[in-house]
Amino acid sequence: MAMSHAKSVLVVEDNELNMRLFCDLLDSFGYKTFQCRDGARAVEIARKEMPDLIIMDIQLPEVSGLDITRWIKDDDSLRHIPVLAVTAFAMRDDEQRVRQAGCEGYLSKPIQIASFMRAVEDLMPQGQAA
Amino acid sequence: MIASALAGLLGWLTGAPFALVLGVVALLWLPVLAAYMPPGWERESQAFQVLGWTVIAVLGVALTGGARSPLTILLVLGPLTGLAIGRRRLALEAAAFSTLGFFLLLAINFIVGLPQLPESLSGLAAAITIAAILETGMLCASAIVSQRRMASAVVKNELAMKQTEQGLNLRSGVQVPRDLPLALLSVTPQGRIRAIEGAVGLLGHLRVGALLHDSLNHLFPDLDLVALNRGAPQTVKTSDDRPVILLSRKTDNGRLIAAWPSDLGDITSLDKVRAEGDAAVRERTAFFASLSHDLKTPLNAIIGFADMMRSGIRGELPEAYQDYTQIIHESGQDLLLLVEDLLDLAKADAKALRFDFEPVDLAASGASVLRQFAAHAERTGVKVELVEEGEAWAHADARAVRQIWQNLISNAIKYSQRGDRVTLTAASNGDGVYLCVADEGAGMDAADLDRIAKPFAQGRNSSGRVGTGLGLAVVKQFADMHGGQVRIDTEKDLGTSVTVSFRPADPADLSEFDRAAQ
């Protein structure tokens, strides 16, 4: 299914099980994954690994995923990387807040495999080999 | 006054000594003069008039031969004066005193005898009697008029108070909120305070009967009375330094002055109260958000991993386990629906449940939820199908519609047996749109039906399977909040059909929606 094995995804997620779920899922679809459990280090890891996509949990213990997204979108070298927000809040105005922060995609937990993979593939930059 | 002067003159002409006539007339003038006491002494003045007449009457009767004296007529003057000025209690007291005096004189007369009236004074006595009869007639007429006026004043006051129950819309256009500590002053056309209602002590000491302007001037030297009378709201500081707004309005019956604390009455503080309410709602909303997060995070792992296993992404599972992973996945979905139902009911209870209304196609929503239940239906051997009748656009919240479908389909499958059929319909009928889920399952009797719409009440179907009743409670709650209705048709062993009606989408919204979609 995956077009290129070279495509990589950075997963920012503090919950161990969800981290594993996302990474195993992406891995089985042929994506390379980088894990970040500490939101404060997300920008640093993104600069180092330059992933093709970032999956961002919004409810992180230390810093909001929305703030990390704003830092990424303020960074000239990272701005082009699409961010897919995943949140368990699913409150009424969440999607709007998430989009305003600069996230290109939005999914609410619990995720369904089909819609999750569709969102990942939709956001993945095409024709760009890492 | 003139009557008693004439009576004195007549008495003098008929042979009474001048000094005596003068004394009697002066005595008779006393209660009359009492009516002209300075403002602020109204009550004392009235009491003086009534009691004056009573004392004069008793004295007069005693001095002129007792109960047989023609001056007995004077005894009715006190009570009548009381009635004429509208003070019933005072009139009663005067009547009691007069009657007591009369019987006392009667008794004295009977036992010891009182001196007979000298012949020379009988002319004066007769004249006074005539004057008293005239006065009595006048007082009677005046008492009747006074009673009528009081009755109408009471009615008008009630009208004024009624207006305040709904919030008093005063002439300046300022709407006084109903639940404020409002004081109302009813003022006579002559400018005297007729009544004080509501927060009586708000403005400080005000006395009924006093002149309004004098009283206000005394309490608030800086108050612009002219502006107040023109209807402009005026702010004054009370003795405890509290700013109070005064507003005056002309009525059929004088004036009505409303007073309320400005820190409660102005628009900014009403906004503050509202903001505090909003903050409380935000706090509850935040609580439910984090509760939702904590419940859904483990569910995400359960449903996600089960989904991965049943779809065999990482390789096929042994046959036996494939069914298990399907069950884990379904149970996770059931649990998710339960969590959402519980949270939504709790949110609705805390008034923190918000909907975003937009055009929602009930048919498309039903088809989407049906796909979610496909594997579940297949495993349980229940055939679930959607009857296509075209689009059915409702004015609704998309997530709520989805959850209504989920609950109804989940229930229908739960109470069906292998081989039964569940039919979903979404259509419009005349002025509304509706969705319907019909099953051929266990059905319900009257007692079940009674229980099901109550949240947390358990229903039990014929085969002993237990339902929480939570799903239907949510369906009903959502329908209510959509201005829709839930209709349940059911018969034991024949099945249940639940229909939820919605308001149709606004055609204007719909075209807007179409444009956005394109």
Write the layout of secondary structure elements.
The complex is a heterodimer of chains A (130) and B (518).
Chain A lengths: L7 E5 L3 H13 L3 E5 L5 H8 L3 E5 L7 H10 L8 E5 L6 H7 L4 E4 L4 H11 L7
Parallel strand pairs in A: 1-2, 1-3, 3-4, 4-5
Chain B lengths: L1 H12 L4 H17 L7 H22 L13 H8 L3 H24 L10 H44 L2 E2 L5 E2 L6 E5 L5 E6 L13 H8 L5 H6 L3 E4 L5 E9 L2 E8 H4 L1 H44 L8 H31 L8 E4 H19 L2 E5 L5 E4 L1 H17 L6 E9 L2 E8 L6 H7 L6 E2 L5 E2 L2 H12 L3 E7 L3 E8 L4 H11 L1
Parallel strand pairs in B: 9-11
Antiparallel strand pairs in B: 1-2, 3-4, 3-7, 5-6, 6-7, 8-10, 11-12, 12-16, 13-14, 15-16
Helix pairs in contact in B: 1-2, 1-6, 2-3, 3-4, 3-5, 4-5, 4-6, 10-11, 11-15, 12-13, 13-15
Features:
heterodimer, A: 130 residues, alpha/beta, five-stranded parallel sheet, globular, B: alpha+beta, rod-shaped
Written overview of the protein:
The complex is a heterodimer of chains A (130) and B (518). Chain A is α/β, with parallel strands linked by helices. Helices cover 38% and strands 18% of the residues of chain A. Chain A has helices spanning 16-28, 42-49, 65-74, 94-100, 113-123; strands at 8-12, 32-36, 53-57, 83-87, 105-108. In chain A, α4 (94-100) links the parallel β4 and β5 (105-108). Chain A is globular and about 30 Å long. The two termini of chain A are 18 Å apart. Chain B contains 16 helices and 16 strands. Chain B has helices at 2-13, 18-34, 42-63, 77-84, 88-111, 122-165, 212-219, 225-230, 262-265, 267-310, 319-349, 362-380, 398-414, 446-452, 470-481, 507-517, and strands spanning 168-169, 175-176, 183-187, 193-198, 234-237, 243-251, 254-261, 358-361, 383-387, 393-396, 421-429, 432-439, 459-460, 466-467, 485-491, 495-502. In chain B, a hairpin with a 3-residue loop joins β15 (485-491) and β16 (495-502). In chain B, α2 runs antiparallel to α3 (42-63) and α10 packs antiparallel against α11 (319-349). The radius of gyration of chain B is 43 Å and the shape is rod-shaped. Chain A binds chain B through residues 15, 17-18, 20-21, 24-25, 28-29, 59, 88-92, 109-113, and chain B through 285, 289, 292-293, 296-305, 307-308, 311, 313-314, 332, 336, 354-356.
